[in-house]
Amino acid sequence: MGEAVTNTFTLFNTGTADLTIRELTTNGAGAAQFSIVGLPASLAPVGSSDFTIAFHPTNSGDYTAALIIASDVPGVDSNYVVNLHGSAYQLSTLRGPYAGGNTITINAGTLGNGTDITNVTVGGVAATIITQGIDWVTITVPATGSAGVKDIVIQSTSVGETTFAGAYTVNPAGQIGGVIEDWTQWQEVSGLPDARMGLAASVLNGALYAVGGAKDSQICTNVYRYDGTNWTEVAGLPTASFTLAAGVLNGALYAVGGATITGFQTNVYRYDGTNWQEAAGWPAASCALAAGVLNGALYAPPSCGISLCTFRAARRGC
After folding, report:
1. Count of Cβ atoms closer than 10 Å to residue 300 Cβ
2. What are 214-252's pLDDT values in tens digits?
3. pLDDT by residue (tens digit) across 177-204?
4. Residue 54: closest CA among 71, 70, 38
């Protein structure tokens, strides 16, 4: 969903007199989802003219309508009816990591009776069905074994097989977001849900995290996760902080030091992908830090406070 699908039709006048189109109407429950462009007011004998019908759904689902072309042809054939049908689907996320494991929801027309979706595949690999309804299903995406565009196929007892060709894209291994075609240029992607300054950022399990920061003199606890397409707010820091550092050590995200409304802090917090827990504190209060990992240790050189310090999971030192 999101882009109109357009088909071109040709209207012929096979008679020996001019053909006049007297009226053009669309009816049916889905009429508002279709638009007609270029239908002529008249046609010369043995003439023809192209016109287009575009399907531009505003929501996922199945839509039907009828285009009625009324002409001056005498008799019962003066009205020509074109039956219209369109189906639209929507994914909560259009792309995801090479390793899979992310959750997406697929909304479409009728996919089943609400309980009888038996199998969903992404790129031919079975996904885990989490929950489902008549016109939607939520799955955990599998590791497909290759990057690129993948079909999603949904099978149910009542409807049968529904295929969404090229609906989902698997990112290359180790990459956040889509393929950047020209690595010599910057490209703008989705912005943060809210403006921040003095925040920290790091990558955990193929997602980019924006941690803490400040806005309009208010120090924030918010943490946002970027999957390459969208930002999602996750569990916030236990304590509001800005000009802090963030780094990943042994599969966990660490938020180190920074400043609060009362001054610089020594606090270190560890995020396991779900929750934050306080870890061993920094040797002395500090802010405006940077962070990096070398040989299994997290280093955080500050620009104010104290000298370079290291952190090794269970101990720290300067």
Report:
1. 24
2. 998 899 999 999 988 889 999 999 999 998 889 998 889
3. 555 455 567 778 889 999 999 999 999 8
4. 38
Of the candidate CATH numbers 3.90.1150.10, 2.120.10.80, 2.60.40.10, 2.40.50.140, the domain formed by 200-317 belongs to 2.120.10.80
Summarize pLDDT for 62-71 with one digit per residue, the tens: 889 999 988 8
CATH architecture type of domain 5-88: Sandwich (2.60)
- The token pair at 238 is 């236990």
The DSSP string of the chain is --S-EEEEEEEE--SSS-EEEEEEEEESTTGGGEEEE---SEE-TT-EEEEEEEE--SSSEEEEEEEEEEES--SGGGEEEEEEEEEE-EES-SEE-TT---EEEEE-S--SSSS-EEEEEETTEEPEEEEE-SSEEEEEPP--SS-EEEEEEEEETTTEEEEEEEEEEEPPTT--SS--S-TTS----PPPSS--BS-EEEEETTEEEEE--EETTEE---EEEE-SS-EEEEPPPSS--BS-EEEEETTEEEEE--EETTEEB--EEEE-SS-EEEESPPSS-BEEE--EEETTEEEE-EEESS--EEEETTEEE-
pLDDT over 80 at 138, yes or no: yes
